[in-house]
Amino acid sequence: MPSLRLKIGTYSKARLIAGPHRFKQGSQNGIKFAMQVVETDAKSLGDLHSRSGNLRRSISTSVKETATTQIGAISSSAIYAAIHEFGGTIKSVGRIMNFEGDYGWKKLRSVTIPARPFLRPALMRNKKKMSQQIAKGINKEF
Fold first, then answer.
1. pLDDT tens-digit series, residues 127-141
2. 50 CB contacts (<8 Å, ≥6 apart)?
3. What's the rounded Cα separation, in Å, for the pair 119 and 39?
4. DSSP code of residue 78
């Protein structure tokens, strides 16, 4: 999965030393805002072609925190989101599956679904904006 690592400059290091709690709170707020930017982009019509809108509605973001790390995550709760994002082969278990294809319904033992990513492109397009949002969050605390 794509990741974004930020380097802390001398000015930010001084802030971190002067007020670690404020720095932590600011970075957490910044990550939250950054992930909202990505969520909005992922839900846009660009990469996501949806019939029912369920996949779009299922996209959400969160900020998780450990003792030394803050992680912004974007995910989808739709059961078919992973196969949509990464592609793959679905195999039947003892039964023949019915799938609608270009030429009508077909009975198959397996079907290969191509990747149609919608989360990763949104992350990649917004790396710069994410960095800016995190910096804004930190600056607001000081």
1. 899 988 888 888 887
2. 56
3. 8
4. -
